[in-house]
Amino acid sequence: MRVYELAKQLGVSSKSLLSFIREKAGIEVKSHMSNLTDEQVEQIKEKLPSKEKKEEKKEEKKKKKRVEAEKKQALPEKGEERSTAQGQKQREETEIKGKETEEKPLPERGQEKESKAVLEEEPAQEEIKEIELELPCSLREFAEAIGVKPNEILLKAMANKKMLNINTVLDDTLAEEVGGWFGVIITRPVSKIEKIRQEHEALARENAKPRHAVVTLMGHVDHGKTSLLDFIRKSNVTDKEYGGITQHIGAYVVQTPHGKLTFLDTPGHEAFTEMRARGANATDIVILVVAADDGVMPQTIEALNHAKAASVPIVVAINKVDKSGVDVDKVKRQLMEHGLMPEEWGGKTIMVPVSAKTGQGIDELLEMVILEAEMLELKTNYDKPAHGVVLEAQLHPFKGVVATLLVQSGRLRVGDAIIVGDTYGKIKSITNDRGQRIKELLPSEAGEVLGIEEVPLAGDMFFVVGSEKEARRFSEEMSEAKKKQRISTPSINLESIFDQIQKGEEKELRLILKADVQGTLEAIKSALERLSTNEVKVRIMHAGVGEIGHSDALLAEASKAVIIGFNVGINSRAKKYIEEKKLEVRIYKIIYELIDQIKAAIEGMLEPIIKEVWIGTAEVRQVFKLSKAGVVAGSYVKKGKIVRGAKAKLVRNGQEVWSGTIVSLKRFKDDVREVAEGYECGISLSNFNQIMVGDNIEAFQEEKILRKLK
């Protein structure tokens, strides 16, 4: 018996039973598809708590609550409790003050006057300002926003060897640098549409109830995606209902014997990825359709890579098993080569042999998809204003703008005002996949709607707002924001990706690889994958033979990958898309040049080895607490020198008790950059006040040593 079958028998979810088996029964199982022996099933049933045990636990909980209630009654009144607590606090504070007075060392006569001069009270450090600013902007606008004159920025630029003028346009990087000169951090203001999205997503998590899964069929052309979907639809609706289907709307809700599912009938993996590139994760599960007679084909691999890039579970339907002489195991072995291991061979991917012609295996396929959905625990709020995604849209000669919307959360009703992409509208009518006029759509349901002003793009998000007037205003603001965004859209290139790796945002260098012949492709792919390190993994999102096409460009944008070509060209459609989205494509004709450039790029971005180089040591001889500057250590430089801004360690009795930065350094009343051996100084440490007489402050600088790949 499999885990999910036992879960059904016991009336519990597969996920909860899986946790119980691993944690309580102590049985090692990989997934809900794992097989259990008869002995293991009995062992699990024995360990499950009986009704009597559950009742005993309930009684124990009740008893515990009663005891807690009695304890609360015995506690003093609030007023009494407060006064007692206050008295105790005051006593503790008095004791601490007394101890501090006793422990504080008295200054020596000769040093007292000099120390006061050395440690003259410092002015309070300026706080770093945080300013919201829409970028890119001119230098003049930037100066006005941070409250300085443009000439001040130009003078600072000259001092920092930057060539700027009054008309310079500041992008994110330059604005960050210029802001740093004036102690200002620049943040982008959160747009109103972003606020709406955040509000909708927050509401979606409240009072969440289960929703059914949205499923997309993908695969190679002529492998039976449409035939399979047609069979599922015909076998799961009555003749009367099927006769009522009068139009194709790209999405179908199907009531299976195991539960409800929504199927998306997309034109292919390009449309799927184009949606994802716009931030619309419309699909919960992908069914990868592979023909048993053809096996894995180029478009199968492309579809698989697009599904992997979207990070959605994949269920494989091995179609056309009714044909004579087909080898299902051969198809499974081919899929293993591309990272999909069948669950019956110890992997995690469910693979079901099916026939869209005879219906063989389709019921099992649907059951497996429902089971996969159960493991995802899909939930949302049904009672909020709707938000979702555009599946497709067109301008109809008689109806006007017709759009198919998939609701992801809330209810979409006739009369709702919506913003969608950079247009808006008011829902005049909703038609379901059976051609019936309906009043509302629930989560995971799709329908054809009328009432949108302009044709939106597939993958655009929609949100219900308070009124049509409000929707119009948001639409205008979004159009303006998109114009600015097009100017400042960051390109996807090796430099930007490695910047993200260095900041800890990315851990993978994602590449799309195209070559002229299969042998060369495999050799390059293998060599690049061997460059992976523990810090940066080289991940080939897709590898194929032939020119760089539109599908490659789409996948590059959606997965933030760089396209690498070897002895291949770029088709005109892909070239246009690459230029528009500012993607990076690198074409090579010599293999070692390709490998060396990627290797050098990874080496340049590996976390360097940090070596500490000692600068000097100072001994703390006096400790002063100043009202504005905090704690300052009156110190004597024993060896080397102490430098303001240097890294430092505080050592007490041979043990390091703090490490950080020397934030200020003084000689008498003056701020100084460094103090040499044999001189006294005042030292302030970053975020540390527990300095004591006799401590040693050791200053050092960090030396970065670049690492090389082996």
Could you walk me through the main structural features you see in this protein, from its secondary elements to its overall organization?
This protein folds into six domains: 3-48, no CATH class; 129-187, no CATH class; 212-377, P-loop containing nucleotide triphosphate hydrolases (Rossmann fold, 3-Layer(aba) Sandwich), CATH 3.40.50.300; 387-488, Translation factors (Elongation Factor Tu (Ef-tu), domain 3, Beta Barrel), CATH 2.40.30.10; 494-605, 3-Layer(aba) Sandwich (Rossmann fold), CATH 3.40.50; 609-705, Translation factors (Elongation Factor Tu (Ef-tu), domain 3, Beta Barrel). Strand 17 and strand 18 (437-438) form a beta hairpin. It is built from 22 helices and 33 strands. With 710 residues, the chain is of the alpha+beta class. The two termini are 49 Å apart. It has a six-stranded mixed sheet with strand order 7-8-6-9-10-11, with helices on both faces. It has a six-stranded antiparallel β-barrel with strand order 13-14-20-17-16-21. Strands 26-27-32-29-28-33 form a six-stranded antiparallel barrel. The chain is globular and about 95 Å long.
